[in-house]
Amino acid sequence: MKKIIFISVTVLFLLTSISAAVTADNSSTEMNENDTTDEIPSDFVHTVFGEYASASWCPPCATASEDLYAIYESGDYPFYFVSLVSDMNSIAKERVNSLAVYSIPAVFFDSGFIVETGAVGQAKYIENIEETAARKVKQPLEMTTSVTWDGDAKITVEVTIKNNGSSFYFGIVRSYVTEVVSRWNTNQGNPYHFGFLDFAIKKLVFILPGKTTSIKATWDGSKDHGGQTFEDITQENTMVISTVSHWIPRLKINENGRLYITFYVDQTSAGVPL
Q1: Residues 41, 44, 45, 50, CA torsion sign
Q2: Which domain does 74 fall in, by range?
Q3: Total number of domains in the chain
Q4: Is residue 69 a part of any domain in this protein?
């Protein structure tokens, strides 16, 4: 009984700690010109998101980094990933801890639908992506991420989501601000890709069937972000990757026996600043 109460309180805390943003209208969703989402193959349900837990001192992480970026660069799969360099960024470390990572490198596909640990190679990652992309999501969603460069390390991010399903959708939107070529290097001295800096958006969203909702926020790299500032970010090296996850939590136990709560991603999109 104590465990049940603890889990319930934890879930409630997670949900209430995220600011709510609830809007809806009848407009249709079109691809923004700076949204980098590719067409999803007919046998894929959605674009896959990978959260790659790593550290700059980790030798096998260098291989995993190269493999993940090679898959992304191929353009063969609807797939985005962020590099959570946990020893270089305190906010990335918090996210890694929330996923109950027990061994690195580790890739959380759609925030834990599949968790792959170790430098397993491109073929295995592709298998994970294909399986994740074909899984049944809560509602079919269209999603775009639009990013405007405001100058002086400041960007405005707008995420638009349309619910193409037959019932309401209640979820969590996260927009990850990343550097395409990271300021941090792997153990082999090569830069990470899509190095996570901070969240531009982390809010709840409620969308009725057939409706569209938009969330907008401004992110300023010159402000404090977990003890660091990123006033030197550049327009051409910035990408924002957004996800929307269904609000129903999944209780998972990792191979180390640790219980954690996660929310599976139902759609992903990305945008670069214009």
Answers
A1: negative
A2: 19-271
A3: 1
A4: yes
Residue 7: inside a domain, yes or no? no
pLDDT tens digits, one per residue of 223-272: 999 999 999 999 999 999 999 999 999 999 888 888 999 999 999 999 99
Please indicate, yes or no, if residue 246 is contained in any of the structural domains: yes
| pTM confidence score | 0.86
Specify the CATH number for the domain of residue 193: 3.40.30.10
Whether 238 is in a domain gets the answer yes
Tell me which long-range contacts 250-253 makes (C-beta under 8 A, separation of at least 24).
250/112, 251/7, 252/100, 252/112
Q: Maximum distance among all alpha carbons in the chain?
A: 53
Rounded to whole angstroms, the Cα distance separating 180 from 187 reads 18
Q: What is the pLDDT of residues 236-248, one digit of tens each?
A: 999 999 999 999 9
Distance linking the first and last C-alpha atoms of the chain: 53
pLDDT digits (tens, 9 = 90+) for 51-74: 999 999 999 999 999 999 999 999
